[in-house]
Amino acid sequence: MKISIITARSKNGVIGSNNSLPWKMPSDLRFFKQTTIGHYILVGRKTYETFTVPLPDRPAFVLTTKSDYEPKYKQDKTISILEEGIQKAKEQNENELFIIGGGEIYKQALDKNLITHMYITEIDAIVEGDTFFPDFEESEWKIIRKDDFTAGEKNDYDYSFVFYEKK
Ligand SMILES: NC(=O)c1ccc[n+]([C@@H]2O[C@H](COP(=O)([O-])OP(=O)(O)OC[C@H]3O[C@@H](n4cnc5c(N)ncnc54)[C@H](OP(=O)(O)O)[C@@H]3O)[C@@H](O)[C@H]2O)c1
User: What's the pTM value of the predicted model, to 2 decimals?
Assistant: First the structure.
């Protein structure tokens, strides 16, 4: 099973501010949906609480230390360790589990060497925020694909979709 991170980060590594996304990038949201649809997702409790609707066709494993935590949507399940989500996805015959953040979850998944692929939207701007994508050892990753786009009318900044595979 592939275990993939999907994220969008600014040039200074910001991924979030005040528990939300510090930009308006509808093209990235569309890419997120297209890429993750039909797959299980694994998400930190703080990011999960930013959802205002269940993500269609993407059941979530919500990582929390709170043993009595009830996910707000019935398609979703609570997990207490990262590896539990991975195990449960495997039991469902998932072929690609998506780790969708936030910062704490990305860091732990990378530190534990669990990640096989990363879909990183590189946002071409310095942005203020309070949550960051962790540094990772670039030499351990191969860039498989990179597509560059200009902001256009709808997106705040120019951006690139970069797809990494672990060497
Ligand atoms: N740009 C992007 O692509 C992107 C994607 C996702 C999120 N974000 C942004 O990232 C920010 C949120 O990230 P964050 O780092 O603050 O929080 P987070 O990673 O979403 O969630 C952190 C929570 O996960 C739980 N947790 C973490 N490690 C755990 C472990 N080992 N075992 C059990 N539970 C664990 C804890 O929940 P409990 O406190 O309940 O125990 C912790 O408070 C927001 O601003 C969001 O908008 C950005």
Answer: 0.98
